[in-house]
Design a protein that fits this description.
alpha+beta; 5-stranded antiparallel β-sheet; Thiol Ester Dehydrase, Chain A; elongated; 142 residues
Length: 142
């Protein structure tokens, strides 16, 4: 993995809607995972890797194998959040990503996660090597 500190981490703005919260207006814990998923999809799209195209053309699926999540501060209804993606490690058939969800107004860290993504064959669901061109792109993301 490259240590290119000049390349910015990927970030996605996310507004908190009523459906993301509990009755008290606090973001429901599972919705942080949805925010992170959305950011990962947009991150891959920014690298010119569409999930459906990977499945159709390459026969690959990228699936979450493990998630380690820490809930630190509540996000609230109508907050604007910034969800980031950083590649921190990769192997032949997996990659580890660090993700943060911060309140945009004051940069408060609301949720942190380390997500292991596995690359599998779309038909057999067995491990399959990540495409070299994808590895080359994620190696440039700090």
């Amino acid at each position: 993995m490259s240590n290119n500190e000049d390349k910015p981490r990927f970030s996605l703005p996310v507004h908190v809607y009523c459906g993301d919260t509990d009755a008290g207006g606090v973001v429901y814990y599972a919705d942080y995972l949805k925010f992170m998923e959305r950011a990962r999809i947009e991150w891959l799209r920014s690298l010119d890797f569409e999930l459906d195209a990977l499945r159709r053309r390459e026969g690959l699926l990228l699936i979450v194998r493990h998630a380690d999540i820490a809930y630190l501060r509540p996000a609230l209804l109508d907050d604007l959040l910034t969800v980031t993606v950083d590649s921190c490690a990769h192997g032949g058939a997996s990659m580890d990503l660090v993700q943060e969800v911060r309140r945009a107004a004051d940069a408060t860290l609301c949720c942190w996660g380390r997500i292991k993504i596995a690359c599998v064959d779309a038909k057999t669901l067995r491990s399959k090597r990540i495409l070299e061109k994808l590895l080359a792109e994620i190696a440039d993301v700090r």
